[in-house]
Amino acid sequence: MIIKQKTVAFADPQMDNEIIQKLWNGFCLKSGEIEFAEGDRFTFRIGEIGLPTLPCGKEYALCINEAGAAVVGRDYGGLMRGFMALLMKIEWDGQTPFLRPCNEESNYKLSKRMIHICIFPENDLYFIQKLIRLSALCQYTHIVLEFWGMLQFDCMKELAWPHAFTKTQAKALAEECHALGIEPIPMFNHLGHASACRISYGKHVVLDQNPRLQHLFTPDGWVWNIESEQTKALLKQVRSELYEVFGEGEYIHLGCDEAFYISRNKDLRSKLPAYLKELTEEVEKEGRRPMIWMDMLLEKGIDANSEASGEKDEVLQLRNATAPSTAFIDWQYDGLEAPIPSLLSLKGCGREILGAPWFKPANYEAHIQTVCQNNLAGIMLTTWHTLNEETRSILGCAKKCGASTFPWSEFSGLREETASLMRRISFEGNSYADCGWTKTQI
Known about the structure:
The chain is α/β, with parallel strands linked by helices and 442 residues long.
């Protein structure tokens, strides 16, 4: 099927937006434009082709033949993931973009395929936009956006560095996620990491700007003061502003990891169940499902490779204190073989369980296998500070989850494929520094 210079598509009205038009143009190597006419909900069709049948349990069905191309989705997210699969089938004959005939259905191993993106002061807005587009192309279902001192809050200016994104800029990021069919999840750590900076470098977004706010934190500044009503009120205001920025959604990620000061302080440890109960139940009343990291709620010594800091007689009390809708996100980065012991230990605890790997292929493969074999909810790939060198892990993990990709993928490598995707989503045009995923080569 030859793709004309101007294509008319009959589609779900939600698809009629600038980001989808730019995606089409990018994958047509800037040699094709698309405009939309209103079609049926959760469908996309060009040409005279009939709509494919969507089998039960599938997120999308895709058909391409000489009469045209069509996608049917289970919902808008499924439609967009099918559209992403269609885009990656666009080829180039030297003069014209075209599509080869094919039939495809989604083949994901997991229903919830999430990714966690940290926004550091060293990241610019365009880089984050490209990561969102890349994550959508890789057919993740959710993206957690954590602003490390990089979102300006009305409730306290010291929560952000002076060059942080405005709420208007952050809202545009969330809106782009929604347009691409990937649900954005706001994140703000409500326990450890209260400095909103990596501990490796000793910075503190609040106290380095205003040390008189020390009372909001433990004496070392790393953990929020869970005994302070003023701290709790501030965190509630933060959540309210995040809901405003992100719009409707199911989850909010509360972090709650690596609260070392509490781990080493028996008195504060005894108060942690009440804090988690109050916090997660309040979030439920706000209309969201809370997510928390699990290292504080796993028994120390569960195995040699697991991150766990809870005492044996406390972990069950901590888990049971959380609101029933809480999702437990178990980050484990040293497990390279399935099953991941900590994930197994959480099975049957009455909460939704997701495994959280990092960039090593063996690590995310072990998580995917453990989740699949034990009927857990899904995974959340974490990226942290390694994105500039390990961007390929976004695609690598997605492919192991069953994401559709380029027809030539088997002959290429993850770096090459990722670079090909990045070129197609750089709508704004690239300076040297903005090409690829690093500012420099040396």
